[in-house]
From TrEMBL:
The protein's name in its UniProt record: Caspase domain protein
Source organism per UniProt: Stieleria varia
Transmembrane domains' residue ranges: none
InterPro entries, A to Z: Pept_C14_caspase (IPR011600)
Gene3D superfamilies: 3.40.50.1460
Gene Ontology molecular function, alphabetical: cysteine-type endopeptidase activity
Biological processes annotated in GO: proteolysis
Length: 247
């Protein structure tokens, strides 16, 4: 395996969830906060993990960008930065916007956070050699309007985006599971169900990016009767390690 893609030495995770928005015209969601909290707890089992959880009124545009900047500043070459968002999503101005707690649908450019803004903000961090993974659990989140591999973010590190749904699909919540379906399987996979078995005694079982995606894709598609198809794009190596599970 390429030595550039060994287990990152430290891991930073920022997890954002909003169910009840400040603006009353924005419909409420049900399980975004639970999904963000569950994935944060799963990621926090990783050695040397630094996590931040922003829920409801704490998940303002300013707070999200401030905490992301903090993690970008402190991440070193070879580290992993995971940014997870479970909120409403909107496609407008040829871009995908996720909606923080204080978002105004009539002023998305000023109150939403676009995928282009987010990815361009990460550019300098990626150029320093940090491996970045963005995970969106939002409707229509596959509608990023440009090719990551051809953007200014290509550098020593890497950037990939894992979307809960393709551009024309909704991200479905499950009342029986009391979770978003995609996030449910993300949490399962990150906790170990997507881990690759090792042959040696007492070896840690890695959860690789591609293995996690394959696990989440097949189960999300099945659980939604093929109404939802997660998408993975970007430049990270398939064997980027997202977690390690004790044998």
């Amino acid at each position: 395996m390429d030595t550039e893609h060994q287990t990152p030495r430290a891991a930073f995770g920022l997890f954002v969830g909003v169910d009840d928005y400040r603006n009353e015209i924005v419909p409420d969601l049900n399980y975004c906060c639970k999904d963000a909290k569950g994935l944060s707890e799963a990621f926090d089992t990783r050695p040397s993990a630094v996590t931040m959880l922003l829920l409801e009124q704490d998940a303002t545009r300013r707070n999200v960008l401030t905490q992301l900047n903090f993690m970008m500043t402190h991440a070193e070459p070879g580290d992993l930065l995971l940014f997870f968002v479970a909120t409403h999503g909107v496609v407008k101005y040829n871009d995908f916007f996720f909606m923080p707690y204080d978002a105004d649908p009539q002023n998305l450019l000023g109150t939403g956070i676009s995928s282009k803004l987010l990815i361009n903000a990460l550019a300098s961090t990626i150029h320093r050699g940090v491996e970045c993974l963005i995970v969106f659990d939002s409707c229509y989140c596959g509608a990023i309007g440009f090719d990551i591999s051809k953007s200014q973010t290509v550098g020593k590190g890497g950037l990939s985006c894992l979307f809960s749904a393709s551009p024309l699909e909704k991200s479905i919540e499950s009342p029986s599971r009391r979770q978003g379906i995609f996030s449910h399987f993300m949490i399962e996979g990150l906790k170990g169900k997507a881990a690759r078995d090792q042959t040696g005694p007492n070896q840690m079982k890695p959860v690789y990016l591609r293995d996690l995606y394959d696990y989440v894709y097949s189960r999300t598609k099945r659980a939604t009767q093929q109404q939802q198809h997660p998408v993975l794009i970007g430049t990270l190596d398939n064997e980027t390690v997202l977690n390690e599970i004790s044998s």
